[in-house]
Specification:
With 346 residues, this protein is of the alpha/beta class. The chain has 2 domains: 169 residues, Quinone Oxidoreductase, Chain A, domain 1; 122 residues, 3-Layer(aba) Sandwich (Rossmann fold), CATH 3.40.50.720. The strands form 5 sheets. Strands 3, 4, 5, 8, 9, 17 and 18 form a 7-stranded mixed sheet that branches. α9 links the parallel β17 and β18. The protein binds zinc ion (2 copies).
Length: 346
C-alpha cells in the first residue's frame, strides 16, 4: 500500500540493553520501512507515550516472565498510521488514522481465552514494550487488527493516559458488580460511582479531591485503615475494592473493609507477592476475588469513548523522551503524581 508520508531511516528510541544497564537514548535506531512490513502490520508515527509502572518492571526484569532484550519499552502510545503492509486484507484502519498502541499488542483471536473475550490472556499474545518493541520511540510497528482507533474529542496525551491505567480500572469497575451509588475503594477516579481512594501524600490528595472523589484516606496517616474505610462507607464497608497496590497487606485489608458480598478486583502486577485472604471471613462475608487483567479491544474502545465524552478527567504531565530515566526513578520512589506522558515529536 502506498503512503504519502515521508518515513525516515532512523529514529530516536530509548533502549534497555540489559536489566542492570542504564537506559540508553539513541537517535539512530532503524525505522522499519513500509516495504518491510508484513501483511497485517502497520507503522505508526507516535505523538506521545505514557509511562507506566509496568515499564519499570519490564526494564528491571522484576517479573517471573522476562521481557525480550534488547527492549524498547512503552505501551501507552498514540500516533498516526503512516504505512500499512502490502497485501493486507480488509484492514479496519487506514493510513492517516489516529490510533493507540496498548499493552496487548496482538492476540490470535482463535484460542479459547480469545474466543471467550479474554484476548488479553491469549495463549499466543504479544505485549508492547515486553515481548515486542514498544512506544518509547518515534515509530512503532503494530497490527491493523489490534491498534485502537482514538475517537475525536480527546487529545493524544489524554488518550495515552487512558490506554493502560484507564482501561485497566475501567474493566475492573465494569466487572465489579457495583451499581451507581456504591462505594469503591481505589486510587483512580471514575464518574458516576462514589469513590474512596486510599493513597498517600498531600499532592495526591489535592489531585484526587479536585477530580471529584468523595473521601480520601491517607494510608500513611491513618491509624486503622480498615476502620476508617468502614466508617466512611456507611459503617458497612465498601462494595468493591480495585487493588493495584504491590503489597499483600493491601489485599488482606480489602477483605476486612469490604462489606458482605463485596468484590475484590486484583489488578496490580507486582513482581512478587502473594494474595493472602482470611478464608473464614472470605466465606462468611461472601467475598468474591477476581483477577482483572488490563482490558480487551472492546474495553479499550469503551474507556476511550467515556474519556472523549468528557466523563473522565486525566491528569498528566508532558515531558521529553529524555526524561524517561528520571520518571522511572520517581515511580520507584512513589513521587510521580498523575501520568507522565512523553512527547515523541521532539
Ligand atoms: Zn501499563
Ligand atoms: Zn488467542
Amino acid at each position: 500500500m502506498s503512503t504519502s508520508f515521508t518515513i525516515p531511516k532512523f529514529q530516536k528510541a530509548a533502549i534497555v540493553e540489559t536489566n542492570d544497564a542504564p537506559l540508553k537514548i539513541i537517535d539512530d535506531f532503524p525505522v522499519k520501512q513500509p516495504s518491510e512490513l508484513a501483511p497485517g502490520e502497520c507503522l505508526v508515527k507516535l505523538d506521545c507515550s505514557g509511562v507506566c509502572h509496568t515499564d519499570l518492571h519490564a526494564r528491571n526484569g522484576d517479573w517471573p516472565l522476562k521481557a525480550k532484550l534488547p527492549l524498547i519499552g512503552g505501551h501507552e502510545g498514540v500516533g498516526k498510521i503512516v504505512a500499512i503492509g502490502e497485501h493486507t486484507q480488509e484492514s479496519p484502519v487506514k493510513v492517516g488514522d489516529r490510533v493507540g498502541i496498548k499493552w496487548l499488542a496482538y492476540s490470535c483471536l482463535d484460542c479459547e481465552p480469545c474466543r471467550k473475550g479474554l484476548e488479553q490472556s491469549c495463549l499466543n499474545g504479544r505485549y508492547s514494550g515486553f515481548s515486542v518493541d514498544g512506544t518509547f520511540s518515534q515509530y512503532v510497528v503494530s497490527w491493523v487488527s489490534h491498534v485502537t482507533p482514538i475517537p475525536e474529542g480527546i487529545s493524544s496525551a489524554e488518550a495515552a493516559s487512558i490506554l493502560c491505567a484507564g482501561i485497566t480500572v475501567y474493566r475492573a469497575i465494569k466487572y465489579s458488580n457495583t451499581h451507581i451509588g456504591d462505594w469503591i475503594v481505589l486510587p483512580v477516579l471514575e464518574e458516576d460511582w462514589a469513590i474512596l481512594p486510599s493513597n498517600t501524600g498531600k499532592e495526591k490528595k489535592d489531585l484526587v479531591m479536585k477530580l471529584g472523589a468523595e473521601k480520601w484516606i491517607d494510608f500513611k496517616e491513618t491509624k486503622d485503615l480498615v476502620k476508617d474505610v468502614v466508617d466512611a462507607t456507611d459503617g458497612l464497608g465498601a462494595h468493591a475494592a480495585v487493588v493495584a497496590a504491590a503489597t499483600s497487606a493491601a489485599y488482606e485489608q480489602a477483605i476486612d473493609y469490604l462489606r458482605m458480598g463485596g468484590n475484590l478486583m486484583a489488578v496490580g502486577l507486582p513482581g512478587h507477592g502473594k494474595l493472602s485472604a482470611d478464608i473464614f471471613f472470605t466465606v462468611t462475608k461472601s467475598i468474591s476475588i477476581y483477577g482483572s487483567y488490563v482490558g480487551n479491544r472492546q474495553d479499550a474502545r469503551e474507556a476511550l469513548d467515556i474519556a472523549a465524552r468528557g466523563k473522565v478527567k486525566c491528569f498528566y504531565v508532558v515531558k521529553p523522551l529524555a526524561a524517561l530515566a528520571e520518571t522511572y526513578e520517581g515511580l520507584e520512589k512513589g513521587t510521580v503524581v498523575g501520568r507522565v506522558v512523553l512527547d515523541m515529536t521532539q
